[in-house]
Amino acid sequence: MKLKVLLRLILMMELLAAGCAPQPTAPTQFPAATAALPTPPPMNTSAPVEAIDLNVFAAASLTNAFEEIGQHFEAQHPGVTVVFNFAGSQQLAQQINEGAPADVFASANRTQMEIVIKAGGVVSDTQKTFVRNRLVVVFPQDNQAKLTTLQDLTKPGLKLVFAAKEVPVGQYSFDLLDKAIADPAFGATYKDDVLKNVVSYEDNVKAVLTKVALGEADAGIVYTSDVSGADAGKVGQLDIPDALNVIASYPIAPIQTSKQAELAQAFVDWVLSPDGQALLAKHNFIPVVK
C-alpha cells in the first residue's frame, strides 16, 4: 500500500516537471544576406588647373632677370606659363600698337611706354617705374685695343658697336657723348671722333654685348645689368663716371586689352615686391623699392 502511494507521488512530480519545462520555439527568421556592393572610388573634388599663358613683352636688357622672375611667378601660380618676348623697346612698342597679344609691357625707357599709352595700349598713370640702370663700356677679354679710359674710344681704327638711336640704350649712349663734349677733359670733337669708329648700330643691347664678347668689335656701350651672371665673364668693363653716365628708368604696365588682367597686374606687383626688387638687384639693376 505504501509502495503504490509512493509511485503515484513520483509520477505526479514528473508530470509537473514536464509542464514547467520551457517549450521549444521556432528559430528566428533573418532576411537573406544580400551581395556586397562595390565601394565607389573617392570623388576628386579639386577642379583641374587651367593652363594659362601670360605674355610679357620686355626690353632685351631684362632677359636674364625676367626669366628668373618668371620661374618664381609660375611657381606661385600653378597652371600659368609666362611667355616672354624680349626685344628692343621700340620693337615691342610697335608690336603692341599693331595688335600683338601682350599682357604686360616692360620698357627700358619712358619714351616707348608713352608711345603705347598714346595709342591706347596702356592706360595712362597705370605704368610704374620698377627699376633703374646705368651704362658701361665693354670690351673683349683680351682687350687687344688696350682700352683704359673713355678717351681711348676715339683711337683711329677702333671698331665700336652701338645700339641704334631708336633703342633706349642707343639714345642713352648719344646722351653720354653730348655730356662729354661739354667737359674740357674730352673736348668739343669727342662725340664726332667716337661716332667715326662705330661700325654697326644694333637693334637691341644684347646684340651689342654679343658682338663684343665674340671679338667682332673692340668695344660697345651696354647696361651694367647686361654684365651679370654668365655674361659677366665674357667681357671686360670700363666704368663711366656719374657726371657723364645716364640713369635709365624702366616703366612697366599691364596692357589694357589683356585677357588676363588680374594675372597681368599680379605680375607687375611681383616685380615691384621686395622679392622682385632683390632679384633685379642681383642682376646689377638699381632697385626702386627697398
Question: Could you characterize the architecture of this molecule?
Answer:
By secondary structure, this protein is α/β, with parallel strands linked by helices. The protein folds into 2 domains: about 120 residues, D-Maltodextrin-Binding Protein, domain 2 (3-Layer(aba) Sandwich); about 100 residues, D-Maltodextrin-Binding Protein, domain 2. The protein has 9 helices and 11 strands. The strands form 2 sheets. A 6-stranded mixed sheet has the order 2-1-3-10-4-11. Strands 7-6-8-5-9 form a 5-stranded mixed sheet, sandwiched between helices. α2 links the parallel β1 and β2. α2 packs antiparallel against α9 and α3 runs parallel beside α4. The protein starts with a helix and ends with a strand.
- How would you characterize the largest beta sheet? 6 strands, mixed
Low-confidence stretches: 1-7, 15-38
What is the H/E string? HEHEHEHEEEHHEHEEEHHE
Q: How many extended strands?
A: 11
- What is the H level of CATH, i.e. the homologous superfamily of the largest domain? Periplasmic binding protein-like II
Helix content: 25-40%
Query: What fraction of the residues are assigned to beta strands by DSSP?
Result: 15-25%
Q: Rough shape?
A: elongated
CATH class of the largest domain equals: Alpha Beta
What is the name of the CATH architecture of the largest domain? 3-Layer(aba) Sandwich
Rg over CA atoms, rounded to whole Å, is 41 Å
